[in-house]
Write a structure and sequence with these properties.
Blueprint: H1 3-12, H2 18-29, H3 36-65, H4 67-88, H5 104-126, H6 134-151, H7 154-174, H8 180-203, H9 211-229, H10 236-256, H11 260-279, H12 284-312
Length: 313
C-alpha cells in the first residue's frame, strides 16, 4: 500500500480530517506550498531588529552624533515610511482592505515604532512638555489608531492598544496611585474602554474585522485584573464573582460566534481564580496534589473542546 493510499484509508476511517488529508497528500506528492507565513515572520523579525538597532544607536551614540543628526535621521525614516504607505495605499474603506504589497504592513509598523522612538528622544533631551510628558504616549496611541484604521493594519492596532495601556499605567503612577486595588480598577477600566471602542466601531460599520483584536486585548486585561484580585482580603469574593460572570459571557460568546480562544479564556481564567481562592489556606502538599489533578483535567477538557470546535468548523 502506497503512502497516498494509506492516507486515503485514514481519511475514509475518519482518522484524519479532509484538510489534514489534503495537506499531507500535498507533502507526499511534493506539490508546491505557500511559505507566506514564514516570510511574514521574517519580515516582522526584521522590523523588530531594525527598530532595536535604531533605539540602541540613539541611546548609545547620541553624544557622538548630536541631536540634529539623530532627529533628522529619525524624521527621515518616519517620513519615508509614511510616504511609502500613502503613495501605495488603496483608497480608504470601512471594510477590510488587502495590503497592496507584502512589505506594506511592516513598513507602516516600522514608521510607527520609529515615530515613538523620536517622541521619546525629544522628551528625554529637551523636556518640551515637562511634567505633562505622558501626553507623548497618548499622542502616540492616537497616531497609531489613526494609522491602523486608515491602512487597515492589525499590527499597528495592537501597538495602539498596548500604547494606550501604557498611558493608563503612567497616568496612575504620576497621580501617586500605587495600591493594588487601584491598579486593578484601572485595568478593568482600560479593558472595558477597549471592548466598548471595538463594539462601538463595529456597530458603526467601521472596520468590523478589528473587533476581534479589541476583544482579545480587552479580555486579557479584564481577566488578569480579576484573577489578581481573588485573593484580596476585602474584595476577593467580589472579584471572583466578576471573574465567573465574565467567564460565562466569554464562553457563551465564543460558542455563539465560533471563537475557540474566548471559550478557552472563559474556562481557564475562572479555573485559575477559583483554584487560587480554594488553596490559599491549604498546605503545600494538598495544593500541589490539587494542581496536578485539576490541571490535568483542565488540559483534557480543553483538548476535547478544541477538537469539537475543529470538527464543527
Amino acid at each position: 500500500m502506497t503512502t497516498l493510499e494509506r492516507l486515503a484509508q485514514w481519511k475514509h476511517d475518519s482518522v484524519i480530517t479532509d484538510a489534514q488529508h489534503d495537506v499531507l497528500g500535498a507533502l507526499v506528492r511534493r506539490d508546491r506550498f505557500s511559505v507566506s507565513l514564514e516570510l511574514n515572520a521574517l519580515l516582522y523579525l526584521g522590523v523588530l531588529s531594525i527598530s532595536g538597532g535604531v533605539l540602541w544607536t540613539v541611546q548609545a551614540q547620541f553624544a557622538n552624533l548630536g541631536d540634529t543628526a539623530i532627529l533628522v535621521a529619525l524624521t527621515a525614516i518616519v517620513g519615508l515610511c509614511f510616504w511609502y504607505c500613502f503613495s501605495r495605499a488603496l483608497p480608504y474603506s470601512a471594510d477590510e482592505v488587502e495590503s497592496p504589497t507584502m512589505a506594506f504592513d511592516y513598513v507602516l509598523y516600522l514608521g510607527c515604532v520609529v515615530f515613538a522612538i523620536e517622541l521619546g528622544y525629544l522628551e528625554t533631551r529637551f523636556r518640551l512638555l515637562g511634567d505633562a510628558w505622558d501626553a507623548y504616549v497618548l499622542l502616540s496611541a492616537a497616531v497609531f489608531f489613526g494609522a491602523a484604521y486608515r491602512f487597515d493594519n492589525r499590527f499597528v492596532l495592537s501597538l495602539a492598544l498596548s500604547t494606550l495601556a501604557a498611558w493608563f499605567g503612567i497616568k496612575l503612577t504620576r497621580l501617586g496611585v500605587r495600591s493594588a486595588d487601584s491598579l486593578r480598577i484601572s485595568a478593568l477600566t482600560y479593558g472595558a474602554l477597549v471592548a466598548g471602542m471595538g463594539a462601538g466601531l463595529n456597530r458603526a460599520g467601521i472596520k468590523r474585522h478589528f473587533l476581534e483584536t479589541h476583544l482579545h486585548v480587552a479580555a486579557a486585561a479584564l481577566f488578569v485584573a480579576l484573577v489578581s484580585g481573588v485573593r484580596s482580603d476585602e474584595m476577593g469574593l467580589l472579584y471572583l464573582a466578576g471573574l465567573i460572570a465574565l467567564g460565562a459571557v466569554s464562553v457563551g460568546g465564543g460558542i455563539r460566534y465560533r471563537q475557540f480562544a474566548f471559550v478557552a479564556y472563559g474556562v481557564v481564567y475562572p479555573y485559575l481564580g477559583i483554584s487560587l481562592k480554594l488553596i490559599e489556606r491549604w498546605s503545600a502538599t494538598a495544593a500541589l496534589g490539587y494542581g496536578a489533578v485539576s490541571g490535568s483535567a483542565m488540559v483534557v477538557l480543553m483538548v476535547y473542546v478544541a477538537r469539537r470546535f475543529g470538527r464543527e468548523e
